[in-house]
From TrEMBL:
Protein's UniProt name: M23 family metallopeptidase
GO molecular function: metalloendopeptidase activity
Taxonomy, superkingdom: Bacteria
Entries under Pfam families matching the protein: Peptidase_M23 (PF01551)
PANTHER family xrefs: MUREIN HYDROLASE ACTIVATOR ENVC, PEPTIDASE-RELATED
Keywords linked to the UniProt accession: Hydrolase
Domain spans labelled M23ase beta-sheet core: 18-95
């Protein structure tokens, strides 16, 4: 899985109660790329949705999407450019908002029950930073 923007800086994290996705710092015109290969299932206004294995990946706001519904895209393929100061990225499965892939450890974020432990993934890629 790839980050949707080069040198990702997360400016707002997923919060099930308050924020259904992850926001990345961008400037207007920043190239936005597919996080995983899939099929473009929706392009409207400033929104592009790519479906991969029954998970929808939402990207917004985009200015001038470069893909069309029904197209197959590969990981890292350009979807369009950011329209503003941030890109909102979100995943949905069965229409329900899901926690995002943790792009900085290459592992799915999950809740760990008391007494259990989670195994960390790979180290952060060069240039990746997270800001609270």
């Amino acid at each position: 899985m790839a980050a949707p923007v080069h040198n990702p800086t997360v400016v707002r994290e997923y919060d099930a109660a308050a924020h259904p996705g992850r926001d990345y710092r961008t400037t207007p015109g920043t190239t936005v790329r597919a996080t995983l290969a899939g099929v473009v299932v929706q392009v409207r206004d400033e929104l592009v949705v790519v479906e991969t294995n029954a998970i929808q990946h939402l990207y917004r706001p985009l200015s001038g999407p470069t893909v069309r519904e029904g197209e197959t895209v590969e990981t890292g393929e350009v979807l369009g450019v950011a329209a503003g100061a941030h890109l909102h990225y979100e995943e949905r499965g069965d229409g329900v908002r899901k926690p995002q892939f943790d792009l900085h450890t290459n592992a799915r974020m999950r809740v760990v029950a008391p007494g259990e432990s989670a195994v960390e993934g790979a180290a952060e890629p060069p240039g990746a930073t997270v800001h609270p």
